[in-house]
Batch of 2 targets.
Target 1
Amino acid sequence: MEMLLFCVWALLALNPGPGATEEIFEVSVWPDQALVKLGQSLMINCSTTCPDPGPSGIETYLKKTQVDKGPQWKEFLLEDVTENSVLQCFFSCAGIQKDTSLDITVYQPPEQVILELQPAWVAMDEAFTVKCHVPSVAPLENLTLTLLQGNQELHRKDFMNLAVASQRAEITINVKAQREDDRCNFSCRAELDLSSHGGGLFHSSSAIKVLRIFEFSQSPQIWVSSLLEIGMAEAVSCELARVFPAREVMFHMFLGDQELSLFVSWKGDTAWANATVRAMETGDQELSCLVSLGPMEQKTREPVHVYNKPRLEESDCPGNQTWVKGTEQLLACVPKGNPTPTLVCTWNGVIFNFEVPRKATQNHTGTYCCTASNQLGSVSKDIAVIVRGLDEGISSTIFVIIIVALGVGVITIALYLNYRPCKIERRKLPYRQKEKNKEEESQFAVQQAEKCNAHNC
Ligand SMILES: *[C@@H]1O[C@H](CO)[C@@H](O)[C@H](O)[C@H]1NC(C)=O
Ligand SMILES: *[C@@H]1O[C@H](CO)[C@@H](O)[C@H](O)[C@H]1NC(C)=O
Ligand SMILES: *[C@@H]1O[C@H](CO)[C@@H](O)[C@H](O)[C@H]1NC(C)=O
Ligand SMILES: *[C@@H]1O[C@H](CO)[C@@H](O)[C@H](O)[C@H]1NC(C)=O
Ligand SMILES: *[C@@H]1O[C@H](CO)[C@@H](O)[C@H](O)[C@H]1NC(C)=O
Ligand SMILES: *[C@@H]1O[C@H](CO)[C@@H](O)[C@H](O)[C@H]1NC(C)=O
């Protein structure tokens, strides 16, 4: 009896009295920290220590399905978890409800890491921008972005202390371009560290971007002789100084529309292109040189004049010329060429003014030396001049005929003159004189004619 009383007392003493059960029973949830990859599902075990629990369940806006249960627990499947949320697990025990909450953290490992270099080609001493961004990553506060130049860390950024709403997984820096940076590999590394939540360490890197740096401050210079000779191969060149990287400079050269084939070389900070031009038309033309490097392009134009060397052709300057004695003559010689050549002729070592017509005399016969010159050079030619009298060659026959004809004409006139005004005197002449030869007769006639004239008849 005493023993029973003691037990009752002990029970009363241990129990805090009415309402004590609510202090005693516990509600717990497993897991106690939930890290779910975006879009994945999660199993929840909600349990209690209440020996005979009343109504129970979980409160969440996520899609939930009860998959199993025991007397003191319930298991749920949560599907398509896309956002961070807080879940409540509750049990009631003897009319008293208790709950416990679970933070669900959604994570998204960095998969795509995008690096941009702007501009792709940057002028020396100008600033360029390196920008890295991760379109889809969570949670941001556990992300670290690192910009790398080669293997060297350029800049590092974490997102722990900034207001989440204002953030994007992005990092941008500006750098001044140095020559040494040319062709440097830039990359960006994203790290998501979830190890303290029982997750892992996720990392991903961007593709490598190569930075190009250039210097291009001058215009190309064309080297060409201002006199090009038609049809002749002439060396020309186009030079670009103070350029970097010189060996990547591209050249195009044109004479008018015709593109020239080039031989490109470089040394130090100078690049040049050599070509051979062959102009096929005389006159003013344009030689141009187009130079490009990365985003830069420059064109230089140079006027050229295409000339023709002087020529003394047989058609315009015959090597054999025949002059007729006593006639007005010019030395026939017209030079060809562009610009029009000047002509100088010498005769017996003396300059001969070939532009003045002169009366051909025997002593004009000889060899004349004519020289035509222009800016491109000069050419000489010997011209043999023969001065012929009228009795020479074929013309002498004609000359004889003309002389005979003239002679006959003169005699005829003489006879006529002798006959008409002096017939009386003539009739008085003795008959026998008629037998004298013609020469004597004409001589006589002339004498008579002279007499006649003397007598004013
Ligand atoms: C849920 O949790 C309770 C209490 O820890 C445990 O007894 C039970 O076996 C769990 N259920 C499952 C399906 O793991
Ligand atoms: C850049 O990266 C390429 C390919 O990964 C490598 O071959 C090259 O050597 C790197 N250049 C520099 C300057 O590190
Ligand atoms: C993620 O970031 C939060 C906030 O800075 C921090 O409390 C937590 O420990 C971090 N988790 C990991 C795994 O670093
Ligand atoms: C190119 O032309 C320049 C100037 O005309 C000359 O000095 C140089 O030797 C040439 N180079 C080559 C490779 O032909
Ligand atoms: C000029 O005449 C000479 C002699 O007749 C001849 O040998 C020469 O070939 C001629 N020259 C020309 C250029 O016709
Ligand atoms: C040609 O010769 C004559 C005399 O023989 C001379 O009087 C004349 O000056 C000469 N003419 C030339 C052009 O030499």
Target 2
Amino acid sequence: MRNAMAAAPLGDDVFGDDPSVNTLQEKIAALLGFEAALFVSSGTQSNLCVILSHCQRGDEYIVGQFAHCYRWEGGGAAVFGSVQPQPLQHQPDRTLSLEDIEAAIKPDDAHFARTRLLAQENTLGGKLLPIEYLQQATQLAKSKGLATHLDGARLFNAATAQSAVTGRDVRKEARRIASCFDSVSVCLSKGLGAPVGSVLCGSREFISSAHRIRKMAGGGMRQAGVLAAAGTHALDYHVNRLIQDHILAQWLAEGLANVPGLRVEVPQTNILFVDLVGSAKKRSVELLPYLKTNGILATGLYRLRFVTHLDVDAAGIDRAIAAITSFFKA
Ligand SMILES: *Cc1c(COP(=O)(O)O)cnc(C)c1O
């Protein structure tokens, strides 16, 4: 990836003539079946460009309580766009109920914000949302005149998990998920392992609007091809290996399953949640610093989150299992 970055031909992307940025944008648009794409500096900036392109001041978007573009982005759409969220509770499988979505769509009445957009996320908390659900929810939204957006920061992890079930090609599964939506945002900097950036896909008209918002957000970057080349490399070489991250997360889960005081979820992708229960909770404050001194990074307190990625190998997983097991034995 470093070599690809060093070798990237560069231009000025503010003028649209950086060949490496254009290559990345054309590649992801073709891969996911969209007319156009836009390279942005982060997933947060991508979602901001999306919401401000689909919605005007006084509009609202329907979104799950746990969605990144509602809960984890500093309320950006409200701050910069005067767009209000209409958050809904998730079902136990992380979907939103179709009845709840329909009930949240406001009638055309001066009392209400105008409901314009349904935003979904896949994977959400490392969980794959069923494709049948995505199809139904987006069809419902479209039948009511709403636009639909997928925060697919981890779209290729979702596609990898889906491909393990259907046996189809990961890229085809990514395209099948994306095809439900008017716009899709993908993080290059998560499981795909690039240092910076996300790509946003949509119609030519939508991307031209998002491009204007990106400019307003200060997201126009000049010789950005040096970063885009990392993204192109990630799409070429880091998609097919995601299955390894999923297998290692599974391996970690199995290795921790019998440690007393831990309740271990079954991971579907590369994110593993582990709850501390009973007396193990008392030691939660010491646990993360202990893991860090052993070279293992996790987040959380009573609910730990471990993520596997391209810099974690099988030996690292064994080391993590051994360290955590010995911590709770001591
Ligand atoms: C990480 C993430 C984002 C934001 O990406 P940044 O590049 O960190 O701004 C958005 N949505 C989801 C689902 C994410 O996981």
